[in-house]
Design goal:
Blueprint lengths: L9 H5 L15 E10 L5 E11 L18 E2 L2 E2 L8 E5 L10 H9 L3 E5 L14 H21 L13 E6 L1 H9 L6 H9 L4 H6 L17 E7 L20 E6 L7 H11 L4 E6 L10 H4 L16 H21 L17 E6 L1
Parallel strand pairs: 1-3, 5-6, 5-7, 7-8, 8-9, 9-10
Antiparallel strand pairs: 1-2, 2-4, 2-6, 10-11
Helix pairs in contact: 2-9, 3-4
């Protein structure tokens, strides 16, 4: 697939970029989607999806192979340069997820004028999961995110859509939510995590068992270019030093948890993690939501109980996604652009019976 990102014609340059709007709905841009394979500086084979503001030229909807999944993204659409350069967001998927597991969320961000990149975490996706490598994967995941960011900046096409000096946001779901905390400033401490898990068998520790090891891992680190993070259904606070103390080093965080999360439970995993994260932060609780509504996994493999929504006593996954789209766009948008459309005082007008918002400035 070969195409060139050409300079704007005089007609294109006359047309002003759309104004940023409150993200209550799909944004003013059409969205292009592209998949790229490359070998990074670590010698690691990587695949990423990239979402970007695009011009709708009648292209076919992008299908997220090998699944039959389309949202609104267009395949190989021409970039819309009117509002560029655009802020960059990196997204990291959950354990057994995949780079496009939250395509609805990633496309939503792109429709509001962001470029988004999401890598597959090798040996940790829906298609290649190897649970014996969870420890190594946990340590390499932050480096995967940094690799994906570097790839966008260096790319002959997409590098023209972003400012290499501009601040970056990171977001993730579940295991990816933990990774987002690491990329956003909190270093993992393997020895202290192992010591904690020797005497605890909670949700987080159960994922690692005896597999948390540095042997063979190319250990990732926080990325200083990241200025804000959004962590969706996180846990495993014990990974971040004695009593999770390294979480005090995070950039401004949006933490969203679900009261009926049965994977990383709200009381024992989400709340202890959110409490330890540095201020300023915003903590959102979705009442009766489950773990999978933050993603499109209910569309990819609809086997989870909370995918049935109200029929099973859960928040409808569409509602979970809608609230997540709004909140993450507001949070990341403010820290990446400073635009008044995302101003902190606008949160005061955002209330609902099925969610609660707590801010710590």
């Amino acid at each position: 697939m070969l195409w060139l990102l050409l300079a704007c014609t005089p007609e294109e340059s006359i047309e002003a970029a759309p104004e940023r709007t409150l993200p209550a709905d799909w944004g003013p841009y059409s969205v292009g989607v592209d998949t790229q394979w490359y070998t990074d500086a670590r010698g690691k084979e990587m695949v990423v999806d990239i979402w970007y503001p695009a011009i709708d030229g009648g292209e076919a909807l992008h299908n997220y192979d090998p699944f039959v999944l389309t949202v609104k993204g267009l395949n190989d659409a021409k970039p819309d340069m009117r509002g560029g350069p655009y802020p960059l967001i990196a997204f990291t998927h959950g354990l057994g997820g995949i780079r496009f597991q939250s395509a609805n969320l990633n496309e939503f961000w792109a429709s509001h004028g962001f470029v988004v990149v999401a890598p597959d975490h090798v040996h940790n996706t829906l298609l290649d999961l190897d649970e014996s490598l969870l420890g190594i994967v946990a340590l390499e995941r932050p480096g995967d995110v940094t690799s994906a960011i570097d790839f966008v900046h260096a790319h002959e096409r997409f590098g023209l859509m972003v400012d290499p000096e501009a601040p970056i946001g990171v977001a993730g779901h579940s295991f990816g939510a933990v990774t987002s905390l690491s990329v956003g400033g909190a270093e993992i401490n393997v020895e202290q995590a192992l010591a904690y898990c020797e005497t605890h068998n909670g949700d987080g520790c159960s994922f690692f068992k005896d597999d948390l090891t540095t042997e063979g891992a190319i250990i990732g680190a926080p990325d200083p270019r990241v200025v804000a993070l959004a962590s969706l259904a996180p846990g495993a606070w014990f990974l971040f030093g004695d009593n999770g103390e390294n979480l005090q080093n995070t950039v401004p965080a949006l933490m969203i948890g679900a009261t009926q999360d049965t994977v990383l439970e709200y009381e024992t995993e989400f709340l202890p993690t959110a409490e330890r994260v540095a201020s300023p932060k915003r903590v959102i609780t979705l009442t009766d939501a489950g773990h999978w509504g933050f993603s499109d996994m209910c569309l990819l493999v609809p086997v989870f109980e909370d995918c049935q929504g109200e029929e099973s006593g859960y928040m409808n996954p569409d509602r979970t996604m809608s609230l997540t789209q709004f909140a993450t766009t507001m949070h990341l948008g403010w820290y990446l652009t400073g635009d008044a459309a995302y101003a902190p005082e606008l949160w005061e007008n955002w209330t609902g019976e099925d969610f609660q918002v707590q801010s710590s400035d």
